[in-house]
Amino acid sequence: MGGNGTASPTSSDGRHFDVVVLTASNESQKVAFEEQLDSMKDQLPSYCQYVVVADPPGCKIGNGGSTMEVIHRLDERFGEELKNYRVLLIHAGGFSQRLPHVSVLGKAFGLVPIGDRVMTCMEFCMESFSAFPERMIPGIFLCCADVLLDFKCSGDWAFDKPGFTALAHPSSTKIGTTHGVFCLARPKEAIAAYEGKDVDVRMEPCRRFLHKPTVAVMKKECPVFDGSDTVFTDSTFFFDYGTAMRLKEFYVKHQPLGDEIDAYGDFLQALGPEASEDYCSNTINVSYLTDSLVQTRRGVYNLLSGTDLHTLLMYKSTFNHIGTTKEYIHHYTSDPVLRRDLHVRSAVEVATVDMPGDCRSEPEQAKRAPLSLPFKNQCLMACLFDDIESCRIDPHVVMEYCHVGKNVTIGENTIMCRAHCNDDLQIAASSFLHTVDVKTTSGQHAYVTLALNIHDSTKAKVGTGDLGDLLYNGSKLVDAKRYIGREQAPCEEFFEEGETTFSLWTCRLFPAFTDVQTSLSWGVEMLRATTNSQDISLAGQWADSLASGADSAPVYFSMKDILLHKDTKPMLQWRKHLRELIAQSNLVSCTEDA
Q1: For the chain, which end, N or C, has fewer CB atoms within 10 Å of the first or last residue's CB respectively?
Q2: How far apart, in whole angstroms, are the C-alpha atoms of residue 3 and residue 34?
């Protein structure tokens, strides 16, 4: 467990969260989170402490296990003081394999295009729930870093009851099948208040909670809106200090926890007067099945059985998950609800070095009045262009922390992060490009660009017999390796020795370079070659910038390798330097944001 390097005094006055906790999957991710918190210390509120808690080594314990580990570590750190604190717990661990660019620095530090400066998902969570502590008894408020909630919350309500109190949002039964659904104790009153549209929030007791139920089960167990398919689904929840201590005692007794426990499926399903332990043996949605899982889940059920579950019905709210490349592009470039309710912008901290011709005679005026460009369905965050008017950016493009040369073309449905583009670069549609600072095993600083198609599945696995059929950018690996100059390498050479299942996540496709712009350009070439079935080679212009291993051969990385060898500090220095350059250049706004 660690913090941001400073021991800020807590508020303990009930007006703010006293402690903000980020969870991390392992010690390496924890260190990366702490380095970022330290780099943000001048922009984060000073009235609370910032703590990072890593999962213990060993098997996966799920976000429920992570929650109990957090409580255990907070109790060790704060002791009796903890019973007076209001804690914001942001689950931020995991590898984000379906949105790989947030894997490196963590989903809590992904960007949200709101306001005049780039905002992290962590800051968004803190701001979104800033009105809650003064309505809250001491305890823990749990949320996830990759969920953007928008809601109105006027009225008479509070997190002041023992047990659990969860936010509940009107949703379709289709959404209910992939989330949790609340079965209310007084559905008629809830319907009347919703149809009357005269309140923002209403507190209601809950009979039971269903995790990812079928539509048939929903209609049988929680018929809320007659004649429609609307139910109330989950997002975040609160539990009081006393409940937290019960969870901690269970965790300490069962250490080391050897099973994956879900904070929603295992905690909330045990609550309410009509809860049933039947779910304990239902392992359909379990990622890692162990022999002891059912027994551990029953232990959690017995611990929490009889505990009250209340809901805050957030009648005027939207729930937005940013967990996949598709969701990321849609919500940030095309979603009219987010643009209307959260004021998502097309350009945040964007600047151009070269001023347009009609502004060059009055450069100071140009800096005071940002250049307004007619972007449509793009999202640019912390980006610097050498000459933005010479570039073409197609719709549904999202860019973070990029430095773009002149006459660059970026095709539609593309994600770019930490990219330094040469002049005249042509980037194909549906590209995913993310350049990462790494240290090779020899200690050399280098750059690796993840170059994928946004539709590539990094989680899809194949067995040994189908290894050549693993798809990269629409090409089978057996063909793709020829296109990218590695025809002589057997498919097995792309993976760690001893692997029995294979995926793009563990495929060593991406070479390391000593030059950041060369790294990106090669990534663009990889995608072009595999799209057009054309051969390219690392010889010639590329060879001079290749990072090499002990045997002088090129060094190749998988996404898994990148997380192990990432070099966080130069990435943060790049971000800081880029924002300084942006501040000194000519700001760009978007007519769509006006």
Answers
A1: C
A2: 6
Distance CA 417, CA 353 (A): 19
Q: Retrieve residue 183's tokens.
A: 């079965």
543 exposure class (CB count in 10 Å sphere: 0-12, 13-18, 19+):
exposed
Query: Exposed/middle/buried for 258, CB within 10 Å: 0-12, 13-18, 19+?
Result: middle
Say if CB 224 and CB 191 are below 8 A apart: yes
- Over 60: is that where the pLDDT of 359 sits? no
Cβ–Cβ < 8 Å for 22, 123: no
- With tokens 């604190």, the residue in question is 85
Distance CA 32, CA 263 (A): 24
Q: Are 382 and 349 in contact (CB under 8 A)?
A: yes
Please give the structure tokens belonging to residue 296.
Answer: 């551990």
Structure tokens at 310: 């209340």
CA–CA separation, 395 vs 392, rounded Å?
10
**537 Cβ neighbours under 8 A, 6+ residues apart:** 485
Q: Specify which residues 404 forms β-bridges with.
A: 385, 421
What is each CA distance from 168 to 35, 132, 143, 263, 408, in whole angstroms? 35, 15, 13, 16, 45
Tokens 């007076």 -> residue: 84
Q: How many helices (H) and strands (E) does the chain have?
A: 16, 33
Is the distance from CB of 80 to CB of 280 less than 8 angstroms? Answer: no
Long-range CB pairs of 483-490 (<8 Å, 24+ gap) are 483/529, 483/530, 483/533, 483/534, 483/535, 483/536, 484/509, 484/526, 484/529, 484/530, 484/536, 485/535, 485/536, 485/537, 485/538, 485/539
d(CA 583, CA 387): 16
What is the pLDDT, as a whole number, of residue 426? 97
Closest CA to 428 of 418, 417, 413, 406: 413
Euclidean distance between the first and final Cα of the chain, in Å?
Answer: 44
Distance CA 101, CA 485 (A): 25
Q: Where are the alpha helices (DSSP H) in 276-391?
A: 293-304, 325-333, 336-341, 363-368
Give the separation between CA 447 and CA 514, rounded to whole angstroms.
6
Query: What pLDDT digit, counting tens, does each position of 516-548 carry?
Result: 999 999 999 999 999 999 999 888 878 889 988
CA dist., res. 71 & res. 183, Å (int): 28
Percentage of the chain exceeding pLDDT 90: 80
Q: 73: closest CA among 106, 108, 37, 49? A: 49
The CA–CA distances, whole Å, from 258 to 56, 294, 564 equal: 11, 12, 24
Report which DSSP code applies to 566: B
Q: What angle do CA 359, 350, 523 make, to 5 degrees?
A: 120
User: What's the mean per-residue pLDDT of the chain?
Assistant: 91
Dihedral angle, C-alpha 594, 431, 99, 465, nearest 10 °: 160
Nearest one of 570, 573, 563, 575 to 30, comparing CA atoms? 563
If phi over 0 gives left and psi between -120 and 50 gives alpha, with beta otherwise, what is residue 62? left
Model confidence pLDDT, tens digit, residues 376-387: 899 999 999 999
Residues sharing a CB contact under 8 Å with residue 436, sequence separation 6 or more, in sequence order: 104, 418, 447, 448, 449, 450, 562, 566, 571
